[in-house]
Amino acid sequence: MTFLPSLVLYALGGRDRVPLMKRVALVALGLLLSVAAIVVLARSDLIWEAWAPASCLSGRCFNEALRPGPIRQPVNTWTNLAYIVVGLLIAAPGAGASGSPRAPLASPKNRVAYGLLVVSIGVFSTFFHASLTLAGEWLDVFCMFLWASFVALLNVARLLQLGRAAFHAVYWPLNAACGLALYAFPRKGGVTFAALIAAILASDALTRRRLRTRLDTRWLLLALATFAGSFGIWLLDQNQLLSTPESLFQGHGFWHCGAAAATGWLYLYYHSERDVMADERSVES
After folding, report:
1. How many whole angstroms separate alpha carbon 201 and alpha carbon 158?
2. Domains of the chain by residue range
3. Can you say how many angstroms the Cα of residue 6 is from the centroid of all Cα atoms in its chain?
């Protein structure tokens, strides 16, 4: 499957011919409920001052100015809808079958779990930027740990031929340890997340080499470029080089959109997997 046609095929519902309108309706319903929840929150009388403040409030919480009311950073709150849209597109029926049944996200359960983990990042990052509370900060970063460790451990499980029970026996204690470390050192969550991203790349490289899988690496390169580019814009904006605190464009909000897109590109990367040995056998026959 070539690069651009594969994106069109996925967006239209994959090879299993799930009706396009059903797929669109499911994603639209999830998006509508998310928008409604944010609107209800914005119109509420909720006061966050009674909650423990986020650790970033000791300095500066990103570049966006803090507003009074229940949504303290509107741009950084609303842009999390990007995660919810991407996650719902992945989790909704109609993703299509991978070229290899051994692919880490070929299982419907793994695909849905991946999509819902992306959705959870959007939900709890919304909570964090609306409230700027310590609880929101922890939940936001912890969901990022859950997503990244899920992908890395799926690769490791394939390499070591681990079953589902063994996967969960590693996945949950690992994330419990990461969660405790995040609670003790809330400002160091980025270091742990970076280590998990490195684990994804390392485990993916080992999987491709040892299991002789073939993937369309352009999706991976697009994911890395989108991730790095949006992160770079966030860093520039953190120093007020691209916007003012009151502007509608915020670098961290752009990061939300870019990182959400990167999770989608990474999914399509694994979705493109082909079994080299199976291809060789079909050629020989």
Report:
1. 14
2. 3-284
3. 20
